[in-house]
TrEMBL record:
This is MASE1 domain-containing protein. It comes from Streptomyces lienomycini. Residues 313-335 are annotated as: Disordered. The keyword Isomerase does not apply. Residues 323-335 have a biased composition (Low complexity). The chain crosses the membrane at residues 14-35, 55-84, 90-110, 122-146, 158-184, 196-222, 234-252. InterPro entries: MASE1.
Length: 335
């Protein structure tokens, strides 16, 4: 008892300040990671995958609205790292902060579960959290650049599309992985460890060969993705999809493999289409398999409980529900 005397919990403002700085630092690190693989398209610089949006949505789903200041501070730090902030910086930061908040609010409204154990959760994350909510950040960012005359009108469509798809892919690919890592527990040793290691080796060997092949064989990545999702659900499907997407982005940036001999716009469109279909396939297929497995477990549990109840009833035998005592003669008198 004496060992705990004098120990006090940290004040709430200190906890919030530390949490804000932690979220901002993670957002900034994810932003720098995304900028390291940016592409040039029609004179504009775009990021095929923008991880900070996925990080921001995951933080809001897991920890709530106190993460908003950290998201805004992280977005500001990313913009400052690119150059001196201008007047439009406020609008871009506001858009990058409002989009994850809108995603969080819409997902809460439809009863989203962070376990992603239902198909409806995967559909909600894709169509509400990614495709719909990220219209806010892309619209605000492109609008501010257009108002400041930093974006020519003939580049408006391609820059907006790249911004929107990059933010959406960040949510589709990064958010499920972070939600999975937050609740991950090391499974007991089993035969599936051998399969998991074998799958990892196969993916790490074949995916670079697929991406850097002079023949366009990007479709060969889908059997690996399906194998991962069928056998390991989100724990296999999302890391595989993210790795394939990163390798495809690296190959596109180097103009190698299937992305060689293409114009900048063609490279961006092909890469984003590939990443988009890959992320959707991994997320929705994993959600479908998880939902089926949960349904089967529920049915098995209900059947087991029913069998136990029937065994309990049969164990009593006939006549156990009657009254006990000395049997009577037909006339009602004792023999």
């Amino acid at each position: 008892m004496a060992a705990v005397v004098g120990i006090r919990a940290w004040p709430r403002p200190v906890v919030l300040a530390c949490g804000t700085l932690l979220v901002a630092g993670c957002y900034y690190g994810a932003g720098r990671l995304g900028l390291s693989q940016r592409l040039a398209a029609d004179g504009a610089v775009v990021t095929p995958i923008w991880p900070p949006t996925g990080l921001a949505v995951a933080c809001l789903l897991l920890f709530g609205p106190w993460c908003v200041p950290g998201i805004a501070l992280g977005a500001l730090l990313v913009i400052v790292s690119l150059g001196v902030p201008d007047a439009e910086t406020v609008g871009i930061v506001a858009g990058n902060t409002a989009a994850p908040v809108c995603a969080w609010l819409m997902l809460r409204a439809v009863g989203f579960r962070v376990s992603l154990s239902r198909l409806r959760d995967g559909l909600a994350l894709v169509f509400l959290g990614a495709l719909t909510a990220m219209l806010v950040s892309s619209g605000a960012g492109v609008g501010m650049l257009l108002l400041s005359d930093k974006l020519p009108t003939d580049h408006l469509g391609i820059v907006w599309l790249a911004w929107w798809v990059g933010d959406a892919m960040g949510v589709v690919l990064v958010t499920p992985l972070l939600l999975l890592l937050y609740r991950a527990r090391l499974p007991p040793p089993s035969v599936r460890w051998t399969e998991a290691v074998g799958l990892t080796v196969v993916v790490c060997v074949l995916v670079p060969l697929i991406m850097y092949s002079s023949v366009s064989v990007l479709f060969l990545a889908y059997p690996l993705l399906i194998w991962s999702a069928l056998r390991f659900q989100l724990a296999g499907g999302m890391p595989c999809a993210l790795f394939v997407s990163v390798m495809a982005t690296v190959a596109a940036r180097q103009e190698a493999g299937s992305f060689g001999r293409l114009t900048e716009v063609e490279t961006m469109m092909k890469l984003q289409a590939f990443n988009g279909t890959l992320g959707l396939t991994a997320l929705l297929l994993s959600a479908v398999i998880s939902e089926q497995l949960n349904t089967r477990r529920s049915v098995e549990r209900a059947c087991h409980e029913l069998v136990e109840a029937l065994q309990h009833l049969n164990a009593g035998g006939p006549g156990t529900s009657g009254t006990s005592g000395t049997p009577r003669a037909p006339g009602g008198d004792k023999p």
